[in-house]
Amino acid sequence: MMNEFLKPYQERAQATLTATLADTGVPQDLQETMHYAVLGGGKRLRATFVYLTCEALKVDLTLADSSAAAVELMHAYSLIHDDLPAMDNDLMRRGQPTVHVKYGEAMAILAGDALQAGAFESIAADELLSSTSRTQLIHALAVASGRKGMVAGQVLDMHHETVKASEQQLIAMHRGKTGALIEFSMISAGIIAQVDDDTRERLRRFGEIIGLAFQVRDDILDEIGDSATLGKQAGADRHRQKSTFVSILGLSSAQSRLEQLTTEAISTIEALGSSAQGLKLLGHYVAGREY
């Protein structure tokens, strides 16, 4: 049932990404690598958050396409670089060889660089949006993906490869590494809809909390899932002795924390009324997904 609910948004995101990456004049090997990284799978959750939030705010989805594409391109770039030997050295992603395994490290780095730039280009080139909205969206994405957001989270992750993290340090790490882009998904819709400050803060807070819930569920799945379903090596975090919510809290307490976070996230958007029902469903899906 949930898969059927998500399908139209996932298909819209996939079509938008395909069109975004269809530019001519790109070297063939770079184009092939980017297509492999972006179009070869993924749940499109970040794009779906953009679309569902825009729907909740009564915004035409054509105004959301560039932000939906941008957040997925930025996410794809982050995965490429995260999988590199200098980072996590992962060999499998979504059931397929990681980008550097298939195309080599140099091409993986360059494809990631191109996708990061393409994320900003997607928004900057969207003439359906006002220049003010485009500027605000580009700034929000830069903050979410950069030195105070996703990159900062990755740096903290590297710091804690050899030093056990506390729960608060783990939360700070994942707010950057995972939560920042989900926050952008929520905030972008608020920017497009030109909502008031209170509503924008509610959206940001929902993204922050549900992003943390996403990571707690990820840690639980790494512990209890199987590689075939996850599309990557199950138990990899435990094997590397990485700090996770499961290693710090234990499996049962991590599950309780997940339920607490989900309830808290849903409560932040109650003020949006019945129009936020889709967002609530997606929040519950994030907390209960199997991969």
Q: What does the average pLDDT come to?
A: 93
The computed structural class is mainly alpha
CATH class: Mainly Alpha
Low-confidence stretches: none
Strand order of the largest sheet: 1-2
Radius of gyration: 18 Å
What is the ordering of alpha helices and beta strands? Answer: HHHHEEHHHHHHHHHHH
Remind me, CATH topology? Farnesyl Diphosphate Synthase
How many strands, which pairing sense, and closed or not: the largest β-sheet? Answer: 2 strands, antiparallel
- Shape-level CATH architecture: Orthogonal Bundle
Count of spatially separate domains = 1
Cofactor: Mg(2+)
Protein name: Geranyltranstransferase
Family: Belongs to the FPP/GGPP synthase family.
InterPro entries: Isoprenoid_synthase_dom_sf (IPR008949), Polyprenyl_synt (IPR000092), Polyprenyl_synt_CS (IPR033749), Prenyl_diphosphate_synthase (IPR053378)
Structure description:
This is Geranyltranstransferase. Keywords: Isoprene biosynthesis, Magnesium, Metal-binding, Transferase. Pfam families: polyprenyl_synt. It comes from marine metagenome. This protein has 291 residues and is mainly alpha-helical. It has one domain (2-288): Farnesyl Diphosphate Synthase. The chain contains 15 helices and two strands. The protein has a two-stranded antiparallel sheet. Strand 1 (92-93) and strand 2 form a beta hairpin. Helix 3 runs antiparallel to helix 15 (277-288), helix 4 packs antiparallel against helix 9 and helix 7 (131-145) runs antiparallel to helix 9 (167-193). It is globular. The chain starts with a helix and ends with a helix.
